[in-house]
Amino acid sequence: MKEKDILKSIKKVVQHSTPKHIPFLEKEIVTKRKGKVWLVLPFATLTATAIVVALTTNSMDALNPTLLNPNRNFLQAFANTMVNPGAATIITGSTDSEIFSRITIPNYETENTFKVNADGTLSLNNNDSTAQLLLTINQFELTSLSQNQDGIISDTSLTVENQSGEIYFDGESAFVDLPEEATIIPQLLFPSANRSFPTQFKTPFAYSSLSSLIMPNLNEVNINAFIDNFLPMVEGLDLLESSFSGSTLSIRYEITQSDLSTIYETMILGTRTRDELNEEEINQLDQEIERNLEGITLNQFELAISLNLLTNQIESILVDVDVENFYRYDQDIPNGDDDVPYFVEWTYNYDLFFTAQIETKDSPIMLIGPVNKEEYELIELTFENPHLF
Amino acid sequence: MKSINTLLLEIQQGNQASLKHLYDSTRFAVFASIIPYLYDQQLAEDVMQDTYLKVLDRIDSYRSNENGMNWLLTIAKHTAFDLIKHRKHESQVDREVLEDITPSDKDAYDLASPIILQAKKVLDKDEQTILFLYALGEYKHREIAVMLNIPIGTVLWKYQAAIKKMKEVLTT
């Protein structure tokens, strides 16, 4: 039974069985006034509970030494999942997210709120030289509400259901084959007057370079070095919770604004460290981090991961992100009036959460926007490209 | 539409019509939140009635900076506990009956419907509450977290676990 069917069935039962009326609400009510009643906290109960919790925790730790270093467990499972994705990995994911954007230019302002509700499955068959990805969209629902400064509201709603797309690699080239109906999804998410989305196109990347973009080049030899190099970054995050049940370790992290620079630094440096850089490289690194984080406010970032300690692989991931991105883009207008500055203020608030049974993280910096069947354009998601919306 | 907090403040001021509005706005969520603790339609309806009576009774204790929905659901939960305590014998009977019920024996749309019975068997109380509230389609996970006064991560985690268990049990 699918998730949406389960939810629908439950909704029907709850709505059907909830009383429509309550008899006393139909009568005149005399409101009784009472004095404040202060509850006395049962300290003895609280103390007893605390002792039980402490004892339970201690005994859990004694029984499960793996809990002592959940960060290492996480990285080990993360590395194993990437190194050894298996012949057929299935990732089932869903998101129920909100994206808010405001674009301001002189004398004009427009606001958009996009709600995205989607669930689908990505099946990966990976052999050494060929790979095939089958994307099944069970449901993709996008609703957008936009309002400009004149108060004109436009409402768009779109639902795409039960569509399958295929990404396959033939030799060194990757091909994407999308169903006709599904192409409306990228059109809505990345609209542009000059862009169309054909149902089939060839990507410019060789499979080998794509796979290295998606995952670090890990193997049995360097896996421990990867863990040791990345552990300081993971240890720098706030571990909110770790619990153990059966063979499953569940851990939850929080990332805060102050963690971002460390994360970016590690992402940029990879396995190198700051100590290995000369003065000029350190300056470049600091500028790069500052540029990347400019205008970003991280309101919330929680990452919850479920690991199977028997197979040492990631079973599921939950990501909850609430982040704002503000950018002001100043530009001279050719032949324009110098007294009137031209600028674009661009604010995005992404309120997303995504759940997946298995997830491999990529670096979503570059998008491939096909122009027609033969041509494509690369869309770089940087501050300098405010043309996506 | 008025917020729950506004309606509660209006009831505090003696506006009786607001209680009816409060009921209309919250009845599904309140009912969804008490299902995990009850096994019987009649008992659930009694809890609903008692919950809104208690809202009137305790309205003076509501503070404007409190989350109204959380305040209301807490009352509903305690009311369910109280009623179960007072009808311990009946509740025990219900539990025994539940174990004997086969899904096809019952109305598809009451609390003994197959989907609810399966949820009660495989999910813990928190997972049920989160799943039932989310199934209504009116609240996002983030809003449920505020309503139940628990972290969003916990809500997401428990929801995902609940769906996984339900898929498994409904597939087998």
Which helices and strands occur, and which strands form pairs?
The complex is a heterodimer of chains A (389) and B (172).
Chain A: H1 3-17, H2 43-63, H3 70-83, E1 88-105, E2 108-126, E3 131-148, E4 153-170, E5 173-177, H4 184-189, E6 200-202, H5 207-214, H6 223-235, E7 238-245, E8 248-254, H7 260-269, H8 279-293, E9 296-308, E10 313-331, E11 342-356, E12 366-370, E13 376-380
Chain B: H1 4-12, H2 17-34, H3 41-58, H4 68-86, H5 88-100, H6 114-122, H7 125-135, H8 141-148, H9 152-171
Helix pairs in contact in B: 1-2, 2-3, 2-4, 2-7, 3-4, 4-5, 6-9, 7-9, 8-9
Description:
- The complex is a heterodimer of chains A (389) and B (172).
- Chain A has 389 residues and is of the alpha+beta class.
- In chain A, 26% of the residues lie in helices and 39% in strands.
- Chain A is built from eight helices and 13 strands.
- In chain A, the strands form two sheets. Chain A has an eleven-stranded antiparallel β-sheet with strand order 6-5-4-3-2-1-11-10-9-8-7. Chain A has a two-stranded antiparallel ribbon with strand order 12-13.
- The model of chain A is unreliable at 28-66, 359-371 and 378-389 (pLDDT under 50).
- Helices cover 73% and strands 0% of the residues of chain B.
- Chain B is built from nine helices and no strands.
- By secondary structure, chain B is mostly helical.
- Chain B is globular.
- The termini of chain B are far apart.
- Chains A and B meet through helix 1, strand 9, strand 10 and strand 11 of A and helix 2, helix 3, helix 6, helix 7 and helix 9 of B.
